Amino acid sequence: MHPKIMVVDDEPDTIDLVKIILESENIQVIGASSGFECLELMELEKPDLILLDIMMPDMNGWETFHKIKERNPALPVAMLTVKSQEFDKMLGLHVLKADDYITKPFSRKELIKRTRDLLGTKAG
User: Fold this and answer.
1) Given a cut of 80, is residue 90 above it in pLDDT?
2) How much of the chain is helix, strand and coil, in % rounded to 5?
3) Which residue among 66, 102, 105, 113 sits deepest, i.e. has the most Cβ atoms within 10 Å of its Cβ?
4) How far are the Cα atoms of 11, 80, 111, 115, 123 from residue 95, in angstroms, in the given order?
C-alpha cells in the first residue's frame, strides 16, 4: 500500500506542486486548504504524514499543529513554510517539536528525500 500524506496550505499552487512531485514517487497526496479542513480530513483519511504551512488565515499552522498532536501524538508533522529565519526553525523543531521544518521554495529532490525520511519504511 502506498503511503498517504496530507498537505495543508492556503495556496492551491503549493498543494498542486507537492502533489505532482510526490505522486510521481507513488505517495498519495491529499490537500487541505485550512487547519479546520485538515482536522476534519485527518479522521477520515488517516494520513501517514502531514506537511503543514504556518501562515494561514483562521487557524495558523502552530494552532493546527497542537490540535493534530492532541488527537494523534504519533503522527509525524513537518512544517512547510516560507518562514526561513533561524528563530522560526528553532521554535518549530525544538519548542513545538515538529518532526521536520521544510522551507519554501524547496527542490523536488529535497521534498522527496525529506518526505521519505519522515515516512521511514512506509515509503518505497
Assistant:
1) no
2) 50, 20, 35
3) 102
4) 26, 16, 23, 21, 28
Query: pLDDT > 70: what percent of the chain?
Result: 88
Between 121 and 114, the more confident residue is 114
Contact, 38 vs 64, CB < 8 A?
Answer: yes
Cell of 20: 505532482
Written as nine digits, the cell of 57 is 488565515
Residue 62, C-alpha cell as written in the block: 502552530
Q: How far apart are the first and last CA of the chain?
A: 10
Residues 37-73: pLDDT tens digits? 999 999 999 999 999 998 898 899 999 999 999 999 9
Per-residue pLDDT, 32: 98
Q: Cα(95)–Cα(3) distance, rounded to whole angstroms?
A: 28
Tell me how many degrees the CA angle 25-68-79 measures, rounded to the nearest 5.
50
Cell reading at 4 = 498517504
